[in-house]
Amino acid sequence: MRFMAHVLHVVARALGLIISFLGVSALCGVLAAGLMLPAAAVTGGAAYGSVQFFDSLPTQLKVDPPSLITRIVASDGSPIASLFTENRTPIPLDQVSPQLKNAIVAIEDYRFYEHGGVDTTGILRAVLANARGDRQGASTLTQQYVANVLRENEVAQGEDSSVALDSQKTLGDKLREMKLAIGLEQQFSKDQILQGYLNLVFFNSNAYGIEAASQYFFSVDAKDLTLPQAALLAGIVNGPSLYDPTAHADLSVLRRNLVLDAMLKHGYINQKDHDAAVATPLQLKVNPPKQGCAYASQAQYFCDYVLHQLENDPAYGKTVDERVRKLQREGLTIKTTLDPRLQGPAQAQVDATAGANPDKWGTSLVTVQPGTGRILSMAQNTRLLPGQGSNFVTAYNFNVDRTDASGNALGGAGGMQPGSAMKPVTLTAWLNEGKPTDQKVDASKRVYPLNYPWRDTCARVVGAYDTAQKSLGASDDLLNDEPQWYRPMTVREGVYQSINTATFASAAGLNDFCDIQRAADALGLHDGEGHGRKVDMSTLGNLLGGPNIAPLSLASEYATFASNGTYCTPIAITDVTDSQGKRIGGQAQQCQANAIKPDVAKAVTSVLQDVLTKGSGYNIKDNNGQTIKLGVPDAAKTGTNEYNSETWLIGYTKGLSTASYFGEALGNPEDHLGRNVLVNGKFWPVIDGAYIAGPQWAYYMQKVLGLYDHGPFDAPPPNLVNAPGTPAPAAPAPAAAPAPAVPAVPAVPALPSFPVIPIPSKHPGDGQ
Description:
This protein is an alpha+beta fold. About 35% of the residues lie in helices and about 10% in strands. A hairpin with a 5-residue loop joins strand 11 and strand 12 (about 585). The longest helix is centred in the first third of the chain and has 35 residues, at about 1-35.
């Protein structure tokens, strides 16, 4: 019985070999006939086995561009971050190690340079080998390239990206690949096909194409691969999971040595090189690719802001999904406005300001260029991921509106209360009515009851300050920080000393209270929640900085003063180019000249210059108690909310406008008071805009102001300075020689801990 069973097994195996041979012969016949005979001369036959079916298959392969890496770069071209679905960097064939090319041909298709796309000899050899129980493929490199192209085309259309194994493909699938391979060989040279294959083939979920694979497994360029490295990579493509050296080191080495055997057999290497390579241990230097803004080499939060601008711009696709796919697959280059010469010092400064920061105080700096709206730097003292150098980790961007963060982040912080940094809005309205800075107002007045006769042509003023009317909804009488400021004073003094009652006296003296709203709108101020919603200046509390406004909006507001009244919408992207270098987008500069009158802007600047020389900004002290001075024309305003938990200094030179912030950026400002707190080793009974945000601004600006225009501001006209009836000022003295130019400062190292700043003995009423 055992003898008969053995005979039947032998007969069955022989029949199988015969059937397989006949099947392959038939397939080869179809291929030959399909290439040589016109379809009209052939009739009958099975659908897959007929020349008619073969002839009906397409001959031209549609090669869509493969998924590529999108790169976000700074204005000087330095990298910020990259995005991809497939980590791939296409390179020309002459940038690939000859050892790798030889290894791939030897192990995958040693007759590559002899066949015309389909190797019928190889097909027959593979069938016979498989019938003997030895698994062997028959696809040529050209056919493999076709299969990879078809897969990539599906992925580009958002379809399933899984690749069927040869054993799972129908005869029709194989015939289609063969026909396309034959057509491909008629279109392109062997080297072109090999180059396409090497740039497309899958090595690992972290590495598509030979350059990415070389970098991922060995941290070298493909042109620098050694023989053992090349053989290992050539072995992976047959089974990327099975021969993954990071997971199956022993199997990958066995496969590598099999490749080396094939290279020796086909004459690509000699015995000595073969033996040396086989004896070489597996020496990986894995370099996982990092993508997205969380791994940005600089300006993580600016990067996220840029992505948001693109993801919400219909120019890059009809839907958000289309735009995201474009960003992650099409190899774009996104050139931004970021200036690394400013970004480095900004990041170093915000990190130094709060130190280890166990209480999670937030610090930020954002700079825009007056007259262009270009965002030059954007920094905060947090990180997107743990272990990146800060114990404060958050996805919230302190500097932008709530809606100005990409879909995979939590959003912008939504702005913070600017306090007295809002007072220049009322000053702008005052000047726009032709009223001078040196006109006196009654800052002793503290009561503005519910029935106060505001002159208002556009909306009813909301709110009141009258302790006697608290039961009717009014707030307590207006307060300044110190009692000696309840007296008549000029509007100029009221601003540079930051006196609340002076701001209200100015508002009460307007011909139309609605001019304050018009000024806020012209300066681009809007609610920090985003969606372009205006700040409602008909609410009295907003005159003193009640609404939440993002630092970027405030920096842009003050840039309008610096540019003599030209407001520019902030922009972050100058150019977007496709993988071929063709420009396909970017943000156009959007500036409105005379958003406020040039003379008004000049007069505001003259007042804000006084802030730094004799007002609230004079309390910006260094570690020795000395006022920090930039040494060039500058202007600024401090701001503090009523809880001392949101503190600011927004200031500018002619070429840079920067919002500096310190405070509770994420939680409830009422729950995290800026009083009796320890910040960076220094105890503060109370925090004010001049104390921490002020020096942060000054130290940063000292390092970068020389890189941009820092010349003198234009003088305001006398009619916007002198009060009626006052004598004209004496003729000005001859202008002094200009100060020497501040030298350009290269990137700076991380700053030491933030200096201890003594609290001044006298400080006027900066913001409720």
